Amino acid sequence: MTDFKKDFPILEKEIYGKRLVYLDNAATSQKPSYVIETISEFYRSDNGNIHRGVHYLSEVSSEKYEKAREKVSDFIGARDPAEVTFTAGTTDSINQVACSLEPILKGNEVLITGVEHHSNIVPWQLAGAKLRAIPIDEDCNLLTDSIEITDKTKLIAISHVSNVLGSVNPIKEITEIAKDHDIPVLVDAAQSIQHLPIDVKDIGCDFLAFSGHKMYAATGVGVLYTSERFSDIMPAKGGGGMVDKVTLERTTYLNPPLRYEAGTPHIAGAISVAAAIDYMQNIGMDEIRKHEHNVYSYARKKLLETDGVTGYGNTDEMCGSISFNLDNIHQYDTGMILDKMGIAVRTGHHCAQPLMRSLGTEGTVRASFALYNTEEDADMLIEGIEKVRMMYA
Amino acid sequence: MRDAVQDDIIKQFDGLEWLDKYGLLISFAKELEPMDEKFKTEENSISGCQSKVWIRTYRENGKMIIDLDSDAMITRGIISLLLKVVNNRSPRDIVDLDLYFIEEIGLKSNLSPARADGLASIIRRIREVAKREAN
Question: What are phi and psi of A50, to 5 degrees?
């Protein structure tokens, strides 16, 4: 089996004298040496502010930044790099859309799903929209047959993959329904961009949001894809770098993508996203998918076979996260003991309180996988769980 | 100022491996008298904890009686220790008490304000009540 651990220096670290088993990838992924060195190299030899200098470093930085945009554009199958803007992350991307569409959303309705995290709930509420969730069945499949679109429905905003369950939502089916009603669709790809090949043209969405840090790049940088047909929406943020002419009476804006990137962006971050894409493409997204699928299926099967383990969610296609609880043991207690064994998992409600309510639990233990995880990591997790059960027996 | 109860707790944890430390915490958790369900209200709960914590306080013969409970065992273990130290003292005593045992038994990470666990907020709440009672 392929082991990519050697590419990630932090994974050599020992925690409390134990080899680190990092299973909190849905929260943030670790970074390969290639990405770390690219960031370091940028600050060491290229750092200048972009799009506003005539000097050499500004030129080099601008070129690298725009190359990064092209790389992202190709990676997600956009028609044009102008459809790609760099943001601060998934949450920022979604907030920008909510802010730009506020005049349309206010007093109307956004259709989400029953598995959303707070980042795909709160921004719409702030924009004054009412939320309605596409219901889920007991396995957490979206009940797409029961999608009901009314005159008030102005946007559908759905996660591609659930951050809690790892369930893959049928986004294409939903964009097709949306098309029949001419309603735009935003896809939150925070938990899928690092696992699944994504083609925005094929998906047929109008917006796609994701973060750099979950796909092996830096924190504080993300992407918002906006399809051409929404290229003239109002920018959510104003300031330097996004304007054409400014007078005290009136301001005109640059064309996308710069219109949507007010102020100095996270230049090194954007470049790190491109480096992360290079790293992933060098392995191949299909290869990553195959490897992750094997490890994920192995872990899930073994976990659910373990005595006293209850798993949540069970859809046809799953990736990334596995959520579970141990009988009569609080998630927090499980997480604390696993941590002392060098196993990093997340516990709690995972910023998805409505989903927790429908699962009928206060929280879960979540083990989430990335390309460097192996079957051995899964075995360590199971071993850890046995120890937890022994300790609380 | 050193405190006999805390020193005794520190001695019990001294030299233990983490696994045994947690084992000991769990045994303290099991010792803790559960709080009556009727007091586990929203009003009595302390927010900011990754596990749920409920607190109830009242005065008896000039001393403060504190009742704490949690749904997680590790948290129960820690609050069980905390109660050994703070319970049944005068409010003034509680206000002045230096809770050094938490750091010395190696549970400092639980105290960090950034940690959602919120032991710090439990202690803050106890001190607030004690301060009010002392005045």
Answer: -100, 160
Residue B113 has pLDDT above 80, yes or no: no
Residues A225, A72: Cα–Cα separation, whole Å: 9
Residues 332-351, chain A: which have Cβ within 8 Å of B? 332-333, 336-337, 340, 347-348
Residue A197 pLDDT > 80: yes
Chain B residue with Cα closest to A390: B23
Rounded Cα–Cα distance for residues B30 and B39 (Å):
19
Interface of A with B in 364-393 (CB under 8 A): 391-392
**Which is more confidently placed, B6 or B1?**
B6
For A94-108, what is the mean pLDDT?
Answer: 97
Question: What's the mean per-residue pLDDT of chain A?
Answer: 96
Q: How are beta strands A18-19 and A14-15 bridged, if at all?
A: antiparallel
pLDDT digits (tens, 9 = 90+) for A242-270: 999 999 999 999 999 999 999 999 999 99
**A115 Cβ under 8 Å from any chain B Cβ:** no
Distance from the Cα of A392 to chain B's closest Cα (Å) equals 7
Contact between chains at B72 and A330 (C-beta distance less than 8 A): yes
pLDDT digits (tens, 9 = 90+) for B48-67: 667 889 999 999 998 999 99
What average pLDDT does range A114-135 have in this prediction?
Answer: 96
Question: What are the respective helix, strand and coil percentages of chain A, to the nearest 5?
Answer: 40, 20, 40
pLDDT value at position B8? 95
Say yes or no for a CB contact (<8 Å) between B18 and A16: yes
Provide φ and ψ at A312, rounded to 5°.
-120, 140
Distance (Å, whole) CA A185 – CA A183:
7
Residues of A with CB below 8 A from B117's CB? 332
How far does chain A reach from its first CA to its final CA, in angstroms? 36
Catalytic residue among B32, B49, B53, B66: B49
pLDDT tier at A3, thresholds 50, 70, 90 = confident
Choose the mutation target among B20, B49, B51 for the interface with A, i.e. most A CBs under 10 Å.
Answer: B51
Bridging pattern class, strands B63-70 and B53-60: antiparallel
Closest in B19, B71, B73 to A392, CB measured: B73
% residues pLDDT > 70 (chain A): 100
Contact indicator for A215, A194 with CB cutoff of 8 Å: yes
* Residue A1 in this model has a pLDDT that exceeds 70: no
Does A143 reach chain B within 8 Å, measured CB to CB? no
Task: State yes or no: is A99 an active-site residue.
Answer: no
Residue position matching structure tokens 């000991």: B24
- State the DSSP code for A42: I
Respond yes or no on whether the N-terminal peptide bond of residue A257 is cis (omega within 30° of 0): yes
Closest CA to B119 of B101, B131, B135, B92: B101
Report chain B residues whose CB lies below 8 A from the CB of A362: 52, 71
